[in-house]
């Protein structure tokens, strides 16, 4: 059902909530619409709900919902607390919600969050993702959480976002190891800031990082690499046309061989301009290391990392960070241990 651009639409009939077969509901641009039916127990197949450009303040709990768009909503100030109970929600887009100030805990299955341009957003719940993720099954491997141009975030909100990114990198490392996955896992996070989080144990000023790794750094518990780049946009006063990516070229060298490859840390594909500095955090698996036998495990290794941007005008990487992600033991990281580790963060 597509009612996009019905600018005089003020309400919807209650019987809409009884549509058992409805899979997609588009109400984009219905600028006078302030509510949707709250009794939706029969809507068991609704997957996509587009409410961008409306004045809706509360979303009914639709268990089957996978994609929700609330962009350009000027009425919503606090996103409702029961959002964590949307058990199947994978995509949440809330770009340019100019009055949004608070995000609650998000559902554990969420793979994509974009709150670009929510300039009044101040707080996010800690933990950012519902603690039910410790009790239920594991979430999907890929995830993208974007807080671009959310310049009003409190420091504790940024800390919560960074903590989630660290937990996500750890969880991906564990799952890739336990399920013997060597490729496909990817996670990236972006938020306004100018400091590499302290959990990156190798850091440098500028765009080049050259840590020296001790012998036995590459062992059977190594499952991934976490990378961080702080990008300054102060000199970039022109709108960014198209998109750009934040990338890192890694070169491993020791007395017996070398290995070089590129990986993505994050990307931007919104028309417009990014203001101030932003922190980009990405995770990649060690598939290329596992498939390459010229890097021995018994010798110290020098790593040279060069962070750079593609098609990003005058923007540049001003600080960077790196961390090797290890698992604890094969198949035995208990959920209670995960919860305890997350609490310690």
Automatic annotation (TrEMBL):
SUPFAM superfamilies: L domain-like (SSF52058). It comes from the Eukaryota. Transmembrane segments: none annotated. The keyword Disulfide bond does not apply. It holds the Pfam family C-JID. Keywords: Leucine-rich repeat, Repeat. Residues 192-329 form the C-JID domain. Signal peptide: none annotated. The keyword Repeat applies. PROSITE patterns: LRR. This is Disease resistance protein (TIR-NBS-LRR class). It comes from Arabidopsis thaliana (Mouse-ear cress).
């Amino acid at each position: 059902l597509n009612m996009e651009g019905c600018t005089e639409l003020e309400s919807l009939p209650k019987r809409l909530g009884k549509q058992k077969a409805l899979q997609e509901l588009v109400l984009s641009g219905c600028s006078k619409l302030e509510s949707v039916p709250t009794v939706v127990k029969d809507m068991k197949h609704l997957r996509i709900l587009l409410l961008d450009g409306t004045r809706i303040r509360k979303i009914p709990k639709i268990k089957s919902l996978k994609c929700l768009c609330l962009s350009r909503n000027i009425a919503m100030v606090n996103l409702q607390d029961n959002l964590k109970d949307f058990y199947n929600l994978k995509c949440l887009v809330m770009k340019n919600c100019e009055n949004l100030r608070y995000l609650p805990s998000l559902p554990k299955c969420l793979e994509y969050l974009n709150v670009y341009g929510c300039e009044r957003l101040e707080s996010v719940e800690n933990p950012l993702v519902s603690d039910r993720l410790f009790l239920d099954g594991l979430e999907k491997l890929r995830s993208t959480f974007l807080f671009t141009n959310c310049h009003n975030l409190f420091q504790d909100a940024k800390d919560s976002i960074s903590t989630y990114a660290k937990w996500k990198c750890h969880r991906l490392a564990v799952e890739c190891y336990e399920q013997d996955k060597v490729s496909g896992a990817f996670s990236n996070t972006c938020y306004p800031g100018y400091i590499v989080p302290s959990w990156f144990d190798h850091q440098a000023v500028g765009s080049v990082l050259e840590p020296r790794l001790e012998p036995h750094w590459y062992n059977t518990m190594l499952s991934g690499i976490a990378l961080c780049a702080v990008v300054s946009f102060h000199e970039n006063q022109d709108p960014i046309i198209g998109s750009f990516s934040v990338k890192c070229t890694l070169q491993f060298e020791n007395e017996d061989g070398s290995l070089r490859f590129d990986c993505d840390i994050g990307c931007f594909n919104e028309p417009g301009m990014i203001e101030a500095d932003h922190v980009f955090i990405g995770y990649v698996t060690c598939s290329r290391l596992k498939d390459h036998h010229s890097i021995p495990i018994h010798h110290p290794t020098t790593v040279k990392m060069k962070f750079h941007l593609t098609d990003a005008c005058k923007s540049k990487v001003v600080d960077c960070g790196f961390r090797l992600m290890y698992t604890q033991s094969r198949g035995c990281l208990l959920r209670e241990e995960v919860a305890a580790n997350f609490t310690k963060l």
